[in-house]
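Q: A reviewer asked whether we had any structural model of the full assembly, not just the individual parts. We don't, so I'm hoping you can provide one. Inputs are below.
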Amino acid sequence: MTTTDDRTGAAPEPTGPLSTIDYSERIPNNVNLNEDRRLQRALEGWQPKFLDWWRDLGPQLPTENVYLRTAIAVGRDGWAHFDHVPMEEYRWGIFLAEQDPDKTISFGKHKGEPVWQEVPGEHRADLMRLIVIQGDTEPASVEQQRVLGATAPSIYDMRNLFQVNVEEGRHLWAMVYLLHAYFGREGRQEAEQLLKRNSGDLDAPRILGAFNEETTDWLQFFMFTYFTDRDGKYQLGTLKESAFDPLGRTCEFMLKEEAHHMFVGTTGVQRTVERTAEVMKAKGGPARFEDGVIPLQVIQQYLNFQFSVSMDLFGSEQSTNAGNYYSSGLKGRWQETRRKDDHVLLDDTRTMRHVVDGQIVEKEVPMLSALNLDLRDEYVADCENGVRRWNQELEDAGLEERLVLPHEGFNRKVGTYAAHRISPDGRVLSEDEWAASVDEWLPSEESRRAVADLMVPEYEYGKFAAWIAPPKTGINDQPVEFDYVHLAEEGLA
Amino acid sequence: MTAVRDEEQTEQGADGSTGAASGAEVPVVDFATSPDRYRHWTLEIDGEVATVTLTVDEAGGLVPGYELKMNSYDLGVDIELYDLTQRLRFEHPEVKAVVMTGGLERMFCAGANIRMLARSSHTWKVNFCKFTNETRNGIEDATAHGQTWIAALNGTAAGGGYEMALACEEIILLDDGSSTVSLPEVPLLGVLPGTGGLTRVVDKRHVRKDRADLFATKSEGYRGETAVEWGLVDATYPMREWEERVAGHAAAAVARSTRSGERGVELIPLEVSVEDGTIRYPYLEARTSETGRSVDITVVGPDQAAPQDAAAALAQGVDYWPMALARALDDLVLRLRTNEPDLGTWVFRTRGESDLVLGYDEQLRDGGHWYLEEVRAYLARVLKRLDVTSRSLISVIEPGSCLVGVLLEVSLACDRQYMLDGVYEDVDPDATPAALTLTASNDGTYPMGNGLSRLASRFWGQEDQLESARQHLGEPVEAVAAEEVGLVTMALDDIDFEDELRIVLEERASLSPDALTGMEANHRFVGPETVETKIFGRLTAWQNWIFNRPNASGPDGALRRYGSGQRGSYDHRRV
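A: Here is a predicted structure for the entire assembly that you could use as a starting point for your response.
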């Protein structure tokens, strides 16, 4: 399929020696891919492996085509194109935000110097590691979510799932492009490893723990896109500031797509809460699984779980690496340029909480050592917004109950709280107290099973499973009942 | 040594500038421990295979002020490892293969804790490295005695973690697409992998030098496939085959072993008392002199004849004289090195019956039983500790000495030997003049790190003198003859002896301790280079120079800045 856009025009005609696959045609891009034969060859070697991976570990449900958004440019308007596309023919493109020729580094010891267009040898290892870790998470979530199509509560939701999946695939492409274009042979080897490690694989698991957990049901998927993808958003936000300009521009554009993933999570949980609130209002009491909806307490438990494991993804509150990355200009802070300080932070301090003698107390720490915490605080503030939105549904239904974010120390396996047991309301607990209450706070096997039992597929256009409310509007101004996904014959069986 | 990777946490601020340099924070280190007190290691025995598992207690640092994240280690962790190696050899003689593995997921060991290193004084760092080096050599010595160590790296082994693996006979790395072996000291910290890393990669594992260069400058290291191809590890297996394959390597090592042993000897706590500057063990006593900045050490000979056979020796357990002496001397050397850096001269004397020593000396040399062989190997290791001790070692030989065979090795390990010619007329005119007796044990039973006997090292390049010394095997040699043969530095009569000795010690104490350490280390190791001599000589010397350079330890140096969020800033002039 040739993509044309009024602003950018058709994809450029291929030049150079003929290859069996026409990459400049098949990979929409704004990096002049057709002018770089070396890079073309490298990507030519990688693409079949990616497609194999997509076929083996991408969405399991057979589909004919899906109404998908494809990135075709990077401008503010008209950057995406919507159409029904067979997923395996999705045009995973390579897009970097527009280059600013006068851009300078905005923080760290190189502040004020021009941004780098090539990788400085000094920072090669660190930059590659950052890119590999980011890149490893992208295909991981596709793998985690591959079975969800079979229990989609609607065709609309199924389309959103697949949109998230193909865009995670594109984000993998974005990272692979950087590895291929800037990191030589080792970069290519790392790019291959990104496909060799697989989520939950005993022999070759994904790098970060949260990406090896199975996504068992749609509520978890929504919580994942809300909380865990939001971690991704914040990580991308720090990489967007990178002195290594191609990385910064790549991440800047990825953030644009990430917004849709957040949207899927926010509205997914919201619609779940809406439906539960409806039942609670009608009954004048708590909603139960027997009512065909997910009880509010279970939604809170899912929230507690996903929030706490996502908090772990920020790493230790105090981190040597984060400080090094910052000072070296590799990774900035969220909204770096809007911060009103010297952007070097050598003498700054901040407070952090930790547990001393069974009490959570504050202490002063050097700012440079606490940048993970700085980012995590921004993240938590953002998470609060979604919770407020979900609570609006409860308030609208005239209910007293509310959802809340648990304490930052609750259920943590990384960082200063890892060695302690903290209740959702922030009390330091003994091991016995924790054991006595943990099933109230985190989803038990039993409640996960009960949620899974509710997950019956609804493939009729415009219909929705009983546990979730329909959205207010459809995608790209299409109606809610639009034929977003055409299932393959075998998929309907 | 080194490198804590990701997310290492700081508790004490980021300047890394204070710390153990001020003596107040340095504890008096006790090297005694036992499995029921281990905080970091576990030992499991299954027939002829032992598994030792490293799961470092993060809060279990020897000195306050750092957390042992990601299985990183400090001296306390290594003291337990040393204890393990000793117990495996004496308490579990039946064990023929030792599998060393990690108790964390994805991280075998991140190496020596950097925050600990950055906070430590130079002296502490050097002592720590020396002890860890000796422990790693001890692991190789175990393998040489049929107890083969196998590193089963079930996660990344970085820096000192990989160096620990390098001491093992085989290295197996998990093939999971993430786990690597690495030596990140040069690129991350501006120092060397100083516990044998650089040396063993090229000298033991025969990795090509250009690849070794790539390896030691690439902080993230290499995964299984490349690591196998280059020889950095021996094999790599995926998780699903892991346990079976590791067991296979262990079984093969068991099958190769010619070791035979049963009914171990329990290493019950060593008897030691410390009072008024005197440290006392059975058969060993050390009196410290702050004013003379010296220690007088007296080795006491056996009080009864050697047991009639190996079974009787085994029955005596740790009370078997050579064993008791080895344990005491081992502990004393470690204590004095770590806790008494100001006492720069150690003066050795012996006291006892030469005839009795001779019986034990022969028994050990003849061996033929696991316990005798292990005691002999242990004595050899303890004597090697003396060789690499950065103190001036002086041997004083007076009437009542019992310098025979293995005990004569202590004297030969010293930098100088002073022997009284005759007796102290004013003290005991009827005493028997001191004599020393070379035995076959002095001709190769207790080799130094350079692979030579102390006797051959003494007469390096002087074959005729070595031969003439050998002519005296088995016969007591008195002072004048000993001087003539070259076994002592000076033979003096009692008119001169005391005064001469006082002046020698005072003069020694006035010289630069740094220059003395360098000079002694150069003189002690003649002849061929071995992995051991390269580690204690070349690698350690360069490392200790680098430790002292501003590029590592200056306020902007890489080691000091580690954890501050800033990288080292270097003076780029080559020196």
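A: Points you may want to mention in the reply: The radius of gyration of chain B is 24 Å. The first helix of chain B runs from residue 75 to 90.
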